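Dear colleague,

As promised, here are the two records you asked about, laid out in our usual form so they can be pasted straight into your sheet.

NAME FIELD: protein one
SEQUENCE, THEN STRUCTURE:
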Amino acid sequence: MGYIEGQDRNQIIMFPESIDEYISEDSPVRIIDAYVDHLDMEKLGFKRATAPVMGRPPYSPRDLLKLYLYGYLNRIRSSRRLEQEAGRNLEVIWLLKKLKPDFKTIADFRKDNKKALKAVFRDFIKLCGEWDLFGKELVAIDSTKFRASNSKRNNYNAKKIRFAHNLNNKMNFLVR
């Protein structure tokens, strides 16, 4: 009995598969795509929201925003990592329609559109909260700073704690 084997990579097929078939109907990238397509990019203040008449055409801010939102949902912050995902991740390839912006373009988009990105993220988080797309984990930050000092005198184990507890009980007995 053999193993389950995949298809031959060199096999030519008569009808090519579309990338859309690889993305499930309930995939978050479909939500990102639909959400960004309904936004008014000029009203939000995105630079290059209108296509220039002369010169080399830039990437659409919609496509770069889709990539940035994908990175936000998947905890990918680095422009270089987003560039890698655009070339190897099928969801991102589908989302960007096979575009592969370089890391500098992604970083410049982030730098040039700070205010607009804040407004979009604020709205996107509200929408995701309404649709229960977040796990709503509780995170608490108290900004306390601790100085690490793990000398034998400063660390505690179960034996030292029992000894201190017994010593404390004896001291309380003697004080009475």
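NAME FIELD: protein two
SEQUENCE, THEN STRUCTURE:
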Amino acid sequence: MAIDRGELAGRIDHTVLGPETTPADARRVVREAERHGMNACIPPCYLPDVETEVTLATVVGFPHGQDAPEAKRAAAERAWEDGADELDVVCNVGRLRAGEDDTVRSELEAVVACVPVPVKVIIEAPLLDEDEKHRACGAARDAGAAFVKTATGFADGGAAVEDVALMSEYLPVKASGGVGSYDEAVAMLDAGAERIGASSGVAILDGAPE
């Protein structure tokens, strides 16, 4: 499908989450999001450094998802208090692979319950086999999450159309990890994604029809 620049902008979470991200980087991404009509996603430590009217997301348990459950809940609460409108929390892939689905679900459920904002669950799909992807998405759905998200972008691989199609059977999908062009973004939307997470938000929009 073709999607015009204005409609696409509102479906992009313009992102900066690298380990070298500075306060200035976070403010720049928020300004770009404001200018182009996108959402923004920045590290939680920089939430107090920005003031904006755009939808502002941040991450919890990023990038490996191995924080203690209590730490994830505390981080989620603090991020909301600091102004986050949405939270992207990383699933504990190791516990999922160990077959501890109930533990994964209960941890996510506790995060969802402790904040009054939408929670997206990053399942890190490139690291999972098909059965694990289904189980991770089921845990996120049963925990009351608003979205499932393909990847952090910090493991091998990123968003893939086949993963988006699978995940969209459970919840709305945020396709994230390696989406760098308009054509790639449209492919993800065609596969069933509702949102795109990308550090290349401006470049994606530059390729869109007016």
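A couple of things worth noting about protein two: Residues 41 and 58 are 5 Å apart (CA to CA). The domain at 5-206 is CATH 3.20.20.70 (TIM Barrel).

Best,
R.
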